[in-house]
Amino acid sequence: MRRAPASFEHHPFRPALCLLAAALALAAPGCGGASGRGAAVLRPSPPPAPAPPAPAPAPRNPPPPSDAPAPEPEAARMFLSRAGQQPAAARAPVPRVTALALANTARGEARGMEPRGEVASLALAEGASGAIPVRVAPGECAAFIAQGGLGVIEVDLFLTRGAPTALEIVAQDADRGPIAVIGGRGACFSNPGAAPLALGLHAQVRRGEGVVLVQGYRRAPPAAPPGASPPDATPPSTSPPADPP
Asked: Bias regions of kind Pro residues — which residues (predicted)?
């Protein structure tokens, strides 16, 4: 007995159903799959972040920081206690190495300024001090440097006014070691008055002994506008001229 083929006699629509299922499967990604999510949407990328601005250039002579050291009270006490008893300091030849060190210090402390007169070279023992006279013009920006040479461990610098027996300290350095500076790095010592200021510039060796070079520097006041009178000039008279006799 022959067995009838079982291919499509009992399920005549199976091929069509298979084709329909395959078509639906292909169409599902475009219409949302079983998860119900739609097709991915392409969005433009955000623009790149702008580059940070370039840092501002540092000022050429920045002022001293707010946490700069304060002058040592012990230095002023020693100086004032011996001010009226100090003999005149002996002048000494300028050591070449110390002069080079002074020039190097001035490049940082008195940049853009010109020297005031000649370098004073003082030979000082421990506890001794020497003085030179200085004048600061009205509106002038001044700086002063004391550079200790071989053997000098601690040097102090003072600007004073008054008699030797009753000196008043106008300014004092706050440095440590063999270099002392007043008015350095743009924080210049200035004269706010209308007349020149006559002062004494004192270098003191608190520890050690040796040669100390002292030099002043200045930046000239801004030029007066055209037609303006110099600071010490007598203003022109505004009264009418007198009648001739």
From this structure: 44-72, 222-245
pLDDT for the residue 115: 94
Residue with tokens 């002023």: 76
Q: Pick the closest to residue 158 from 123, 199, 104 (CA basis).
A: 199
**Torsion angles phi and psi, residue 84, rounded to 5:** -80, 0
Closest CA to 189 of 121, 128, 124, 110: 110
Determine the structural domain holding residue 148 and report its residue range. 73-219
How many domains is the chain built from? Answer: 1
In-domain check, residue 14:
no
CATH number where 124 lies:
2.60.120
- Could you tell me how many residues make up the chain? 245
Segment 140-152 shows an average pLDDT of: 96
Among the ranges given (38-52, 143-157, 172-186, 191-205), the one the predictor scored with the smallest mean pLDDT: 38-52
DSSP 188-224: -EE--SSS-EEEEEEEEEEEE-EEEEEEEEEEPPPPP
Q: What is the pLDDT of residue 237?
A: 40
In a domain, 146, yes or no: yes
